[in-house]
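The instructor's notes for this session suggest beginning with a concrete chain rather than abstract definitions. Hand out the sequence below and ask the class to guess, before any prediction is shown, which regions might be ordered.
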Amino acid sequence: MDGSTVLASIPGWRRRSQPGKPVAAPRPQEVLNPATWATAQDLIQMQRYAGRIDLTRTRPARAQRGGNHESRFRGRGMDYRESRAYQAGDDVRSIDWRLTARTGAAHTKLYQEERERPVILFLDLHPGMFFGSRGALKSVIAARAAALIAWAAAAHGDRIGAIVSSDGHRDLQARGGKHGVLRLIRELVERTDPRKGLEAPASTGGLNAALGRLRRVSRPGSLIVLLGDYYGIDGESSDHLLHLRQHSDVVAIQIVDPLELASPAGARYGVIAAGVPGILDTRAASAQRAYESYFRRHHQAVASILRSRAIPLLRIGTEDDVGAALCRQLGTSDGHRRTSRHAA
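After discussion, reveal the predicted structure:
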């Protein structure tokens, strides 16, 4: 069951004018419930959580530009790494005088040079993401999560890039600071318009084609954050993920609706799947068990593939407060707001 075109059944999604009272033509987002379309104001407000998110990567970054993360490149930087025996050509300014005096042999200090790291957000906004039975559409939840991670990356001095897959692929080259986040927000607002998203054909090649493109454009040493519901994940997807994981840090965020966790109450429901109307009948206990079994297998497949590639899997529900949910799962280890010398 896709459920991608149940937008019109969400209560209050369309604002009605009072009969006989002339009203001005609404701006595009005024005709939709905010839970159905990510607004710029909503995404900008996610910045208030940024200081509580820890995006510390598990492997050194390899970008060439200066930044706020450790790298495999060594040089004169902010952090002391180790001392070793002095070698011809070493900078005399780096001599470790205390160790030299203690051992009687000249030693020099080595420093860990800081490097910035690109953070690449991958959003799979296929038509099924424009669905939500409670809370907000999956597409809106994904946009909020992407915006929050982007704000956290900017606060830590990282550059923000993105690949948004919907009716085609939109690539945003990594850019630093507030401008990088605001550029992403503009793209998210445009791409989460449910009227366009529901009518758009699925991207050619689906999830695997999008992951293949991500492989081609991502830089080694990046942090890649995948956002979607992962319908269509398979063995080919696993191969793409393995390649990405070999060269970058990867985190997956799965957006889940309550109807994907438990069967709705026994009844006959009108649904539209892939543009074809039909009836979902859950009155029989066997039908409810089959319904739940389908989604349970999907969630298990997603978890298994990601676990096999050592990719952490986070889950956010359409009813969740995105900021609170990500702070619980990606929050700073000490529970306090991080400070950074890199302002957004």
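Then share the key points. The radius of gyration is 24 Å. The CA atoms of residues 168 and 204 lie 8 Å apart.
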